[in-house]
Amino acid sequence: MARPTYRIAPSILSADFARLGEEVRSVIDAGADWIHFDVMDNHYVPNLTFGPMVCQALRKHSVTADGRKVPIDVHLMVQPVDALAQAFAKSGADIVTFHPDASTHVDRTLQLIKAEGCQAGLVFNPAAPIDVLEWVLDKVDVVLLMSVNPGFGGQSFIDSALRKCERVRKLIESSGRDIRLEVDGGIKVDNIRRVADAGADTFVAGSAIFGQPDYKAVIDAMRAQLA
What is the pLDDT of residue 2? Predict the structure, then answer.
């Protein structure tokens, strides 16, 4: 099966919160494919970030100069999941992913997200097993592998994520389904190629992009590594 097109998804967790709308427009102008939204509830993870109203407010900013809607990729680090998943879907999210250990009924949560017209996905922490995937692969559009522990931006990449990435890529290919394999945490210009070689096609980068003065230069450098 041909490898899908690579996607770069800047995480607004590392953006300037006082200028979020402007930051989203800037990073889209710089070439972002998706906008990644890290939702933390100070319960499942020790931090608190954005709610559905922020997603709704940013929806009108997440369009390209020629009017194309850039997908909003919402990663829920929350427990319980269902009500917030539906709220984000209604607030303009295009993709909603959650951690299986945060949902009482993973299959039902995936169905709820799909019923709202969104793509649905599962997220696996660095030390989490991927067994659940075997039972719900037919309902999943995205698999997101964490290459840092969830809760904070700016952490270093955990190398064991590469082995997990290889394993999930095999699962996806044997299913024959069009499922994106996304990796989040510590992605930089100097390691993005290794992550792609392990099977990932979608890359979340926060501080690596928003921590630099020229967003376009970073995204261009990442694409050069992927080329």
Answer: 53
Q: Is 178 annotated in the active site?
A: no
Domain positions in the chain:
7-226
Higher-pLDDT residue of 189 and 156 is 189
The per-residue pLDDT for range 148-184, each reduced to its tens digit, is 998 877 788 999 999 999 999 999 999 999 999 999 9
pTM for the model stands at 0.96
CA dist., res. 199 & res. 220, Å (int): 20
Q: Of 38, 94, 141, 201, which residue is the catalytic one?
A: 38
Give the whole-angstrom CA distance, residue 201 versus residue 180: 7
State yes or no: is 82 an active-site residue.
no
Measure the CA–CA gap between 207 and 153, rounded to whole angstroms. Answer: 7
Torsional sign, CA 137, 139, 142, 145: negative
d(CA 10, CA 34): 7
CATH, domain 7-226, list 3.90.25.10, 3.40.50.300, 3.20.20.70, 3.90.870.40 = 3.20.20.70
In the chain, how long is the greatest CA-to-CA distance?
45
Interior/surface letters 70-79, b for 16+ CB within 10 angstroms, e for the rest? bbbbbbbbbb
Within 10 Å of residue 211's Cβ, how many Cβ atoms? 14
- Identify the active-site residue in 41, 73, 141, 184: 184
**Percent helix / strand / coil, the chain, rounded to 5:** 40, 20, 40
pLDDT digits (tens, 9 = 90+) for 73-118: 999 999 999 999 999 999 999 999 999 999 999 999 999 999 999 9
Could you tell me the two tokens for 158? 């955990």
